[in-house]
Design brief:
This protein has 254 residues and is mainly alpha-helical. Helices cover 70% and strands 2% of the residues. α10 runs antiparallel to α11. InterPro entries: DNA-bd_dom_put_sf, MerR-type_HTH_dom, MerR_fam.
Length: 254
């Protein structure tokens, strides 16, 4: 028989962890020495090994407690729970991979010298986390080719275009800070760059449908889904002013 310290040293667990397991009721030493100290033996070792095995395949301590304390749970009935447990672990793995990818992407942006604030960072991470939900929204609100074009953009191209957009955002913030008017050439160049990003995202043969897409955009209700947005209301207003100036210039030239 071993004291809690001796048992912990042999099993690699701290006395604090063993006491915690006792408080949860999943590993309770039945014997004590004459001084009232807990004593652990082969029975406790077998229970601990079962706990560690179940933890290894992803069961929570609460689930382990239920398995150990429920006499009706046989090895056969336990085996029936494994497919569900596998699905849970696969989902967790996918979430972890997604989180790691997001971290690497943010580090890449910082390494490229793109200044990030909380608004931009939150938008980026939200967009990556809820990409599937956003694609579903697009499929629901847009028809045919337009929906598939925006949902089928390759991930690497999407990251590239996001990065280019962030560089433009940096320039827009500077133009606003320097109070550069919308009719200035450097301001109008912003819209040219944004248009180029849009054209990179769609196939060349789809450009002829731009009028139809514009009608679909006007028919959607943006409030139905809160898309992450890099831009502040001030920056959006500035871009809208640039667009109006360029449209007017186009009409005057025509």
């Amino acid at each position: 028989m071993y004291t809690i310290g001796e048992f912990g040293a042999k099993t690699g667990l701290s006395s604090r962890t063993l006491r915690f397991y006792e408080e949860l009721g999943i590993l309770y030493p039945k014997q004590r020495n004459q001084n009232g100290h807990r004593l652990y033996g082969l029975e406790e070792l077998a229970t601990l090994q079962r706990i560690q095995s179940l933890k290894f395949i992803g069961y929570s301590l609460q689930e382990i407690k239920e398995i150990l304390s429920n006499e009706k749970i046989t090895l056969e009935s336990f085996a029936n729970t494994l497919p569900v447990q596998k699905k849970i672990l696969v989902h967790k793995r996918e979430e972890l991979n997604q989180a790691i990818e997001a971290i690497e992407y943010v580090q890449d942006l910082l390494n490229d010298g793109i200044p990030l604030d909380w608004r931009i960072l939150t938008s980026l991470l939200y967009s990556m986390e809820f990409e599937e939900e956003q694609n579903e929204w697009i499929k629901e609100h847009f028809e045919g080719e337009m929906a598939t074009i925006f949902t089928d953009i390759p991930k690497e191209l999407r990251k590239k275009l996001d990065k280019e957009t962030l560089f433009i955002l940096v320039d827009v913030k500077k133009l606003i800070r320097d109070q550069v008017p919308a009719h200035a050439p450097e301001a109008q160049q912003i819209l040219v760059r944004l248009t180029d990003i849009f054209l990179q995202a769609i196939p060349k043969e789809a450009i002829n449908n731009l009028d139809e897409w514009e009608n679909q955009l006007e028919a959607t209700q943006p409030d139905d889904f809160d898309f992450p947005n890099f831009w502040t209301s001030e920056e959006e207003a500035y871009l809208e002013e640039i667009t109006k100036v360029m449209e007017q210039n186009y009409k005057d030239e025509g």
